[in-house]
Amino acid sequence: MSGKHVVVIGAGIVGACTAIYLQRDGYRVTLIDKGAPGEGASLGNAGCLNASSVVPVSMPGTLSQVPRWLFDPMGPLTIRWGYLPAIAPWLWRFVRAGTPERVAQIAAALRPMTGPTVGMHRELARAAGVEHMIHHVGHVHVYRSDEAFAKDGAAMALRQSQGTRIDELGADELRQLEPELDRGYVRARLITENGHCGDPLKLTAAYVDHARRQGATVRRARATGFRFEGSHATAVFTDQGDIAGDMFVVAGGAWSRELAAALGDDVPLDTERGYHVVIRDPEAGPRTPTSAFEGKFVATPMDMGLRAAGTVEFGGLEATPNWQRADNLVKQLQAMYPRLARNLPEERISRWMGFRPSMPDSLPVVGRASRIANAYYGFGHGHVGLISAPMTGRLLGDLIVGRKPTIDPSPYAVTRFA
Ligand SMILES: Cc1cc2nc3c(=O)[nH]c(=O)nc-3n(C[C@H](O)[C@H](O)[C@H](O)COP(=O)(O)OP(=O)(O)OC[C@H]3O[C@@H](n4cnc5c(N)ncnc54)[C@H](O)[C@@H]3O)c2cc1C
Questions:
Q1: What is the pLDDT of residues 272-326, one digit of tens each?
Q2: Measured from the CB, is residue 379 less than 6 Å from ligand 1?
Q3: Ligand 1 in contact with 274 (CB < 6 A)?
Q4: Is the CB of 34 within 6 Å of ligand 1?
Q5: Distance 40 CA to ligand 1 centre (A)
Q6: Is 143 exposed, middle or buried (0-12, 13-18, 19+ CB in 10 A)?
C-alpha cells in the first residue's frame, strides 16, 4: 500500500475506472469534476460494450468523402463550415491515419483496450453493486441491401483480423432475432462477443460512488493549471482553490487539451459531437443493440427506453446543438421499427448532444506526460471510451505503480504526435 495521493481530473467513465484501479493499489484518490460525475460524454452514449470495436473512424477513401460532409448538414458525418479552419490540421492528420497500413496498426492497438471490456465492466459493476446493468446479448449490424452489406465488408474483415467471430444472417434469421425490425432489412451480421450497458450515466455514477465508499474524495471543482517544482507537479489549481497531490491524472475527456498544454504537451485533441434521442415506453424496438449501417447510429434497448445514439458532427466545443440531427434519429427509428408511434408526444422524447474526446488516429492518449514526471493522461477515447475505460484505468494503475503493464502502452503515448 503506497498511501500516496493521486488527483484525478474528470469524473467521467475513464476517471471513475482509473480512480477504482488506483485505490486497489493503495493510493488515496481525489476525483474532481467541474460538473456532476458522469455528465460529460459518458452520460449519453449508446452503451455499447463492443469488444469488436477496432475500426478507426478514418478508413481508406476518407479524403474523397470530405466534400460531402461539408455540404450535407444532416448526413451521418458532417462538418460545420465555420469550424473548418479550426479543425483543418486535425482533419489532415485524420485523413493520413486512414492508410491501409496505419488502419491495420490502429486496429491491432485498439483490440487490447476493447477486447476485455465485458468481463472487466462486469467485475467493476459487481464490486460497485450494479452488475445487473451489464448485459451480454451481442450486437447486430443490419443492412437494407446486398450493396450496403458489401460496403461494410472491409470494416468487418478488420474486426475478424483481430479475432472477432462474425455470424452472417439472412432475412429469416434476422426476423427471428429482431422481430420488430422493418422487413426492408435483408442482411445482418451478429457479433456475439459484444455486450451493452443499460444506463451509462448510472453506471459511471455507481463507479464514482463505489470509489467514494472506498475512501475517495469527490469534489466539484474546475481544474485550470498546475503548480510545479522542477519537473514535478505539486498541485492542481482549481476555481475552488489549489489541491496538492503526489500524482495527477488528466481524464477530462474532450476538455483535456488545455490541461495537457499546461503540462507541456500539445495534443491534437478535438471533438466529434454526437447526438442521441431516447423514446420512453417504446411500442417496439430491438432486443439486441442494433447498428444501422446507413445512418451510422446504434439503437440500444436501455433501462430508460429506446435510445438511438451516434452520428458525427465536427463543430467544436462551443457551437449550439443542431437539434434537427436528433429529430432525424427519431425518424430513422420510426423507419426501422414500424410499430413505433408516428406522432410521438414530446414528453416521451428526450434529446442530447455530447462531445466525444477524439484523436485523429482514433487511439486514446494513455500514459505519462512527456515533460512532467508525476502527471499522466487518460483521454481521447473517441467512440470507444465506455468500452476502453476499464483497461485504461488498469493500465494507468500499472504505469503509476511501476509494474509491468498488462498491455503494451506504446501505441497510446502522447509523444506519437511530437
Ligand atoms: C452519441 C455518442 C455515442 C457513443 N457511444 C459509445 C458507445 O456505445 N460505447 C463507447 O464505448 N463509447 C461511446 N461513445 C463515446 C464515449 O461516450 C466517450 O468516449 C466516453 O464517455 C469518454 O469518457 P471520458 O471519461 O473520457 O469523458 P467524459 O465523460 O466527457 O468525462 C470527462 C469529465 O471531465 C470533466 N472535466 C473536463 N475538464 C475539466 C476540468 N478542467 N476540471 C474538472 N473537470 C473537468 C468533465 O466535466 C467530464 O465530466 C459515444 C459518444 C457519443 C457522443
A1: 999 999 999 999 999 999 999 888 899 999 999 999 999 999 999 999 999 999 9
A2: yes
A3: yes
A4: yes
A5: 5
A6: buried
45: pLDDT strictly greater than 70: yes
pTM over 0.85: yes
| Residue numbers of the domain that contains 203 | 1-55+111-127+194-269+360-418
Ligand 1 in reach of 387 Cβ (< 6 A): yes
Whether residue 251 lies inside any domain: the answer is: yes
- Within a domain: 406: yes
In a domain? residue 205: yes
Residue 305 forms part of a structural domain: no
Instruction: Supply the pLDDT for residue 71.
Output: 83
pLDDT grade, residue 62 (50/70/90)? confident
Q: How far apart, in whole angstroms, are the C-alpha atoms of residue 47 and residue 142?
A: 18
Collect all residues with Cβ–Cβ distance below 8 Å to 219 and sequence separation of at least 6: 30, 31, 32, 33, 240, 243
88 HSE (CA, 13 A, CB side): 5
Among protein residues, the one whose CA lies closest to atom 25 of ligand 1: 12
CATH of the domain at 220: 3.50.50.60
